[in-house]
Amino acid sequence: MFQRIKGNELKPGMFVVSHGLGTFSSPLVRVGELVVDQAGIDAIMQNGIDHVLIDPSKSAPALAAAQPGPAQAPTNLLKELPATRLLYSDALDYVKQFMEDVRRGTDINCGRATNLVERFVQNVLRNDTAAVTLFKLRGFDQYTYTHSINVSILAVLLGKHLGLDRHSLLDLGLAGLLHDAGKEFVPAHILNKPGKLTEKEFQAVKGHPLDGYNLLRKQRDMPVDVLRAVLEHHERHDGTGYPRGIRGDGIGMYSRILVLVDVYDALTSDRVYKKALPPANALNLMYQLRGQQFAVDDIENFIRCIGVFPMGSFVRLSGGEFGIVASTNNARPTKPEIKVVMDAKMRPQRPRVLDLEAMENTPQAQEIAEVLNPADYKIDVERFLCA
Fold it and tell me: 77-306 architecture in CATH?
């Protein structure tokens, strides 16, 4: 059932059905979208409307409020960076060698993958979001290789958020690292094609989960749950995925985790056929597919895990200044800490940290007005974040 509210009551996370313009010829404007931040609210309110019609059943409480998580004392980012870069570089070397071995049909070394995942788990347990953000902000741009690493790390992060034990995190991370092994059997010109795939080309791509499964099941002591996740990482909650078209609870838990983080990393990475989306925009897009491609509980847990505005997001504040999300806020996801690094004219300034929650209801109160793609402005987020 729809609900009519005053315009000034509109909050991030609400699904707006329509709003009134108060004119005879156009009394209503259909919106039909989730409001993710203050910029979305401003866009609707710019015509001075009094009321909006919202659909509570499609609203996202996870965007406005979430259950507080355990307090953490993250390692200093600047101190963490060298070890993190070394680990990422080691992982990159392994993935390149692994894929080359698959292409040549030579023996593959899964033991080294296990050792790398152990280091991933240690890193996430030690520093949680901070460590994962450093991986995502890496200076590497080889998507074919980095995607598997990012999926592994993000899967471990979400698994930790869900309370999985260390053994489960190791299996989950291994599944993430190896999930696209079957893509080495897909011709490179198809994987790197900038335009739309033909039906024949798409069928070739759809074969990679089964090809990866068949490759890895020949490896000694490969966990059954890892194999299942590799096979099912392109299945979808509504049964529209592949290779088997299974749905709902028929998809394994590790598989459902990989489904989420695989899509998220793809959306937030530059590809040959599209530019990366800012993290908050990617989450908004994924949230629109809840109950369809993703189970509702799964996507809401993922949003709670990494935050509505993930650490490292480049944002414009309502006061005009620009900054980086320096710390997420589990209790108030739309009120993170922001490291302000530029004035309203995008001129660098001495960094200072603003706690948006602490500033609420004060004359200095600000909101996140817009999430931007740092690449569009040649912003080195990592450098500012560690300043």
Answer: Orthogonal Bundle (1.10)
* HEC letters along the chain: CCEEEEHHHCCCCCEEEEEECCCCCCCEEEEEEECCCHHHHHHHHCCCCCEEEECHHHCCHHHHCCCCCCCCCCCCHHHHHHHHHHHHHHHHHHHHHHHHHHHHCCCCCHHHHHHHHHHHHHHHHHHHHHHHHHHHCCCCCCHHHHHHHHHHHHHHHHHHHCCCCHHHHHHHHHHHHHCCHHHHHCCHHHHCCCCCCCHHHHHHHHCHHHHHHHHHCCCCCCCHHHHHHHHHCCCCCCCCCCCCCCCHHHCCHHHHHHHHHHHHHHHCCCECCECCCCHHHHHHHHHHCECCCECHHHHHHHHHHHCCCCCCCEEEECCCCEEEEEECCCCCCCCCEEEEEECCCCCEEEEEEEECCCCCCCCCCCCEEEEECHHHHCCCHHHHHCC
Domain ranges in the chain are 3-61, 77-306, 314-385
pLDDT tens digit sequence for 204-260: 999 999 999 999 999 988 999 999 999 999 999 999 999 999 999 999 999 999 999
